[in-house]
Write a structure and sequence with these properties.
45% of the residues lie in helices and 14% in strands. By secondary structure, it is of the alpha/beta class. It has a single domain, classed as Aldolase class I (TIM Barrel), CATH 3.20.20.70. The strands form 3 sheets. Strands 3-2-1-8 form a 4-stranded parallel β-sheet. Strands 4-5 form a two-stranded parallel ribbon. Helix 2 links the parallel strand 1 and strand 2. Helix 2 crosses helix 3 and helix 3 packs parallel to helix 4. The two termini are 18 Å apart. Bound molecules: 3-phosphoglyceric acid. The site of 3-phosphoglyceric acid has 11 residues, from strand 8.
Length: 212
């Protein structure tokens, strides 16, 4: 694990996966996350607003903004130009990993089996997203993969929620958890910024209770 990624995840055991339709929504979401005690946001390239939102959100005090759903080098370049501090992918692209490494930016590709973990390790990546976490077997799968790959740390995302966060964070091989439960689409559409702050505070309380 590169030191910057290790310390970033240690300081951010809960990584919200944010999908916004405008930069202004991104700013409101970012402020609500910080109000609830969450200090990072993975802003996904699933909407046209992603780069603008990342750029606007980098102005928020106390928030580290990463780019998510980065599936090619063009998006990775756009993300870094917008000011993203790290890059997350929903799968493994050696091109994206090498590009981020060349730029000196932490990168979190997703790996769900031994072959992808071997590909990651070959490029010096030992911290990976595990996506879609629950659909791919959740904690039992992560524990099983940890036997041959004890050096790997996982960031499960996809199906993680307040209900199972503590169980995931109790697993030593898990560096942090990602998820959208505190920033659900309807909460953003209805501008429920207070609810986002409350769900964020609840997530941080669960993480603290789990010793993170
Ligand atoms: C992701 O991109 O990591 C997932 O869409 C987040 O999954 P969730 O919505 O189940 O939390």
């Amino acid at each position: 694990m590169t030191e910057s990624l290790a310390s970033m995840l240690a300081a951010n055991p809960v990584v919200p996966v944010v999908v916004v339709e405008s930069a202004s929504d991104g700013v409101e979401v970012g402020k609500a996350l910080v109000a609830g005690g969450i200090t990072t946001a993975e802003v996904t390239f699933r909407t046209r607003a992603a780069a603008d939102a990342i750029h606007a959100m980098t102005e928020i005090d106390g928030l580290t903004v990463g780019a998510g759903t980065v599936i090619n080098i063009a998006q990775a370049k756009e993300a870094l130009a917008a000011g993203a501090s790290y890059i997350v992918s929903p799968g493994f692209s050696a091109d994206v990993v090498r590009f981020a490494q060349g730029e000196g930016v932490p990168v979190l590709p997703a790996c769900t089996d031994g072959s992808w973990l071997m590909a990651a390790l070959e490029l010096g990546v030992d911290t990976v997203k595990f996506f879609p976490a629950v659909a791919m077997g959740g904690i039992p799968t992560i524990k099983a993969l940890s036997a041959p790959f004890p050096q790997v740390r996982f960031v499960p995302t996809g199906g993680v929620s307040a209900a199972n966060l503590a169980d995931f964070l109790a697993v030593p091989a898990i560096a942090a958890c990602g998820g959208s439960w505190m920033v659900k689409k309807n909460l953003i559409a209805e501008q429920k910024w207070d609810t986002i702050a409350e769900l964020s505070a609840q997530a941080i309380a669960i993480a603290k209770e789990a010793g993170r």
